[in-house]
Structure formats: structure tokens, C-alpha cells
Design brief:
Elements (H helix, E strand, L loop, with lengths): L1 E6 L21 E2 L2 E2 H12 L2 E8 L4 H9 L6 E6 L6 H10 L7 E5 L2 E3 L3 H10 L4 E7 L18 E5 L6 E6 L12 H6 L4 E3 L2 E2 L3 E4 L3 H7 L6 H12 L16 H7 L2 H8 L5 E6 L6 E3 L3 H13 L30 E2 L4 E2 L4 E3 L2 E2 L4 E2 L4 E3 L2 E2 L4 E2 L4 E3 L2 E2 L4 E2 L4 E3 L2 E2 L4 E2 L4 E3 L1 E7 L5 E7 L1
Parallel strand pairs: 1-4, 1-6, 4-5, 8-14, 16-19, 17-20, 18-21, 19-22, 20-23, 21-24, 22-25, 23-26, 24-27, 25-28, 26-29, 27-30, 28-31
Antiparallel strand pairs: 2-3, 6-13, 7-15, 8-12, 8-13, 9-10, 9-11, 31-32
Helix pairs in contact: 8-9
């Protein structure tokens, strides 16, 4: 059985501020389910994983313990604490030093939601004897008239694959390319003259590594990130001198290699070659995304609530009726999710939104494309669209919010009209928490 490492230590959480101000990214609700539950479901469905190591830090440990305690599946889950600010490569060194990674392993970001059949990724990895196999998701095609501009390349990778779409031959961040110009080695082109370079292949941070790759981290102690340092290094090394790489030798791991790979894969590993593979999902194929920004987090909630991610379900609707005297179930549409002990006032409507447990909505409230976490209070005649309200937030009567994120326990004044801002906790002279606007 394989081991999976899920990165829930939240180094990417700044992109979701203020949502992650007091909650780890992996615990954020999507369709009223914690993000971590989606990675666990993907791994459980694969059937080839026995143990999942969830990487966190002391600050988030108790919150993730509560999330893990709710899991009822067959996977063995263990929370592993690393230093605050540790990168993904640092976390792997820690796990290796504690003897927790004995064979090939998966590395998955704590914000990934995907229904890609992981068993197919594992089969490709073993068949080719890959050093690393990377999941890539093709983005929807742009309209012909919509030209990609230089600023649109932010966060984009240039990805080179072979004509079979199974070998990963080139990987470079657009930010590291001068004016979007890439340089390809002659040795690569001689070996793969039909190289395809794409800028529409997104990396959802799902990797399957050969065990020996951990040796590279010992030789490269300055590597902190698997995505931005280890992975590009391995891709480049396919066509460069490999004399200084700690590749497996015939006498080094024969039992492990035989146990985890086909005969062809074992031979490839022991031949001492770096081989990087990729599993490419077409744009209209399996669901695959990262909830790594405010916009992506909102989209993930919309997709799950309306059933756009076909194999994933939002949290089960509570069997209890909506609190009598306050609301009718018809006021919450079928593309929304509702937690337990929710109260909704008369003449209120909730569309394409996720309303967490113990929320209270007054009369005449209008919610569209919103996410309300646990214990949010929304008073009468509040209108909100494209908003996220963190735990314990309160919006007073008559306020109008659009494209707003409200931090935990923040109070929005009555009649406020707020657009495109993040409201974070601040205490006034009377000791009350009030909204403090920050530009998006």
C-alpha cells in the first residue's frame, strides 16, 4: 500500500486571507465539508493507500484534530507537526527523518479537490518506473478573439510534454521566463523532436514520487518547495548529467522496487535514469481544481453545491426541518447547501450559497453566491452577493455587501454599503469587534 502526504500546514493560506486568519486552509468548508475531506475521499476511492500523513503545525493542530476525528473511512490518518513556515520539501525531510516514508509516496496540497482516479496515476507511475508522476488539468479553451496577454501569465507554467502526453519533458514558471521566451536544450529535442509546449495545463499539486527522490533533498538542503524547486530540478535532470544523482542501484532496493512496480518499471529504476511522467486530464474530463484563492474557493463552493463536481457530494442536509416560524425550505434553492440548526426569517431567499451550521438569517435577507461559515448572524433586509462570512461574523440590518470577505467575529454596521473589500477584526474603544476595511 502507498503512503500519501497531505500538506495542511497552510503556507498558501495568505491567498485566502481573512478566511485563514484563525482557521487552517484544510479545515475551510466547501459545500459545508472541510477541504481535507475531499483529499481523503480521493485517496480512499483509489484503493491503493493505507496511510495518510497530514502535515500541520502547532497553531492548527487542534482544529485539524477535530476534522480528522470526523473521518469514518478505512484510511489510517496521522497528523504530523512540522515547524511553522516549513515548505513542502522541508516537510518531506522531516517525515524521512522520522522514518515515515518507506516507499513511493503521493504528495497532495491541502486545498486540492479532484475526482481523478488516482489508481490510474499510480499505474502509470509504476509502469514507466517514473521518478515523479504529475497530475495536470487542461484549462478550457479561450475564445479565438480573446488573446492571452502578458499579465495573464501570472501563475502560469510552461509545460512541455511528448506526443503521447505521458512524459513531462519541460517545466518552467512563466515568471521565470524573460518575456515569455523559453529555452529548450538540444538533447531534449533530439530525444523528443515532437515536443509540445503548453500554457493551458494547470498543476493542481498532486504528485507521486519515487522513494529515492528523498535522497535528492539530502543532497539539496536549500530546496524548500517540492513544486518550485524539487520538481523542476528532476525535469531538467532528465537531459543533463546525472552522475551526482542518488539514483537507486541494483543492490540498493530490489525488494521494494519489485514490490511496488512491474518488471519493466523495476528495470527502468535500476537503469539509473530520471524519468518524469504526467497524467493529463482534458478540460472536459474529471473535476480537478485548487481552492487556493478567494475566487477559486467561491467557485469550488458553487461547483459542489450545484453538483458541478459530479462524484462529490456536499455535506448531507440535516434531517431536522428549518426552524419553525422562521422559514420555509422552498426559500433555499437546490443549488445551495444548508448545515444543521439554521434559522431563516420570512421572505428571505438563498440562492447558490452554502449556509453553515447554527447560522441565523433574519427577514427579507437575499443571499446569492455566498458562503456563510458556522454561527454567522445576518439581520433583517441584508442583501449580499459573492460574499464569504467567516465564523461568528454578524451583518446588521439593511447592509448591502458585494464581493466582500468578512473575517471571524467581525461585525458589519447597519446600513453599510460595502463592495470589493476584506473586513477584518478590529476592536474599538468600547471593546467591541468592528469591521476594518482592507482593499482586495
Amino acid at each position: 500500500m502507498l503512503t500519501a502526504v497531505v500538506l495542511a500546514n497552510g503556507n498558501d493560506g495568505d491567498n485566502l486571507y481573512p478566511l485563514t486568519e484563525d482557521m487552517p486552509l484544510a479545515a475551510l468548508p466547501v459545500g459545508n465539508r472541510p477541504l481535507l475531506s475531499y483529499q481523503l475521499e480521493m485517496l480512499q476511492r483509489a484503493g491503493s493507500f493505507g496511510e495518510v500523513l497530514v502535515v500541520t503545525n502547532d497553531r492548527h493542530l487542534s482544529r485539524l484534530e477535530a476534522v480528522v476525528s470526523e473521518y469514518r473511512g478505512p484510511l489510517r490518518i496521522e497528523l504530523v507537526v512540522v515547524e511553522e513556515g516549513a515548505g513542502s520539501a522541508d516537510a518531506l525531510r522531516t517525515l524521512r527523518g522520522r522514518g515515515r516514508l518507506a516507499g513511493d509516496f503521493a504528495l497532495i496540497s491541502g486545498d486540492t479537490i479532484s475526482d481523478v482516479p488516482f489508481q490510474k496515476i499510480a499505474a502509470m507511475h509504476q509502469l514507466h518506473g517514473a521518478s515523479v508522476t504529475v497530475l495536470l488539468k487542461q484549462q478550457p479553451p479561450r475564445p479565438a478573439a480573446d488573446k492571452k496577454k502578458a499579465r495573464d501569465l501570472d501563475g502560469t507554467d510552461f509545460v512541455g510534454i511528448d506526443e503521447s502526453r505521458q512524459r513531462l519533458l519541460y517545466l518552467e514558471s512563466a515568471a521565470d521566463c524573460d518575456g515569455g521566451v523559453i529555452t529548450v536544450s538540444e538533447s531534449m529535442l533530439r530525444a523528443h523532436p515532437h515536443l509540445e509546449v503548453h500554457s493551458d495545463l494547470a498543476d493542481p499539486h498532486v504528485y507521486l514520487f519515487a522513494h529515492w527522490v528523498l535522497e535528492v533533498l539530502d543532497h539539496k538542503p536549500h530546496f524548500s518547495s517540492a513544486k518550485f524547486e524539487l520538481l523542476p530540478y528532476l525535469v531538467r535532470k532528465q537531459f543533463l548529467d546525472q552522475a551526482n544523482l542518488p539514483l537507486p542501484q541494483a543492490e540498493a532496493q530490489p525488494q521494494q522496487a519489485t514490490a511496488m512496480s512491474s518488471a519493466a518499471a523495476t528495470a527502468a529504476r535500476l537503469a539509473g535514469a530520471v524519468r518524469c511522467c504526467c497524467y493529463v486530464v482534458p478540460h472536459d474530463g474529471h473535476y480537478c481544481m485548487r481552492a487556493c484563492s478567494i475566487a477559486a474557493y467561491m467557485q469550488a463552493n458553487l461547483d459542489i453545491c450545484k453538483g458541478g463536481a459530479a462524484t462529490f457530494d456536499k455535506a448531507a442536509e440535516p434531517t431536522e426541518p428549518l426552524r419553525e416560524g422562521n422559514f420555509a425550505a422552498s426559500n433555499i434553492d437546490q443549488q445551495s447547501a444548508r448545515g444543521g440548526s439554521v434559522e431563516l426569517g420570512p421572505r428571505s431567499q438563498v440562492k447558490k450559497s452554502a449556509v453553515g451550521p447554527h447560522c441565523r438569517l433574519g427577514a427579507g435577507v437575499r443571499l446569492t453566491n455566498c458562503v456563510l461559515m458556522e454561527g454567522v448572524v445576518v439581520h433583517d433586509k441584508v442583501h449580499m452577493s459573492n460574499c464569504i462570512l467567516c465564523r461568528g461574523a454578524e451583518v446588521h440590518e439593511g447592509a448591502t455587501l458585494k464581493d466582500v470577505q468578512v473575517g471571524s467575529n467581525v461585525s458589519v454596521e447597519a446600513g453599510a454599503n460595502v463592495k470589493s473589500e476584506a473586513l477584518t477584526a478590529e476592536v474599538d474603544a468600547e471593546g467591541s469587534v468592528v469591521g476594518s476595511a482592507e482593499e482586495d
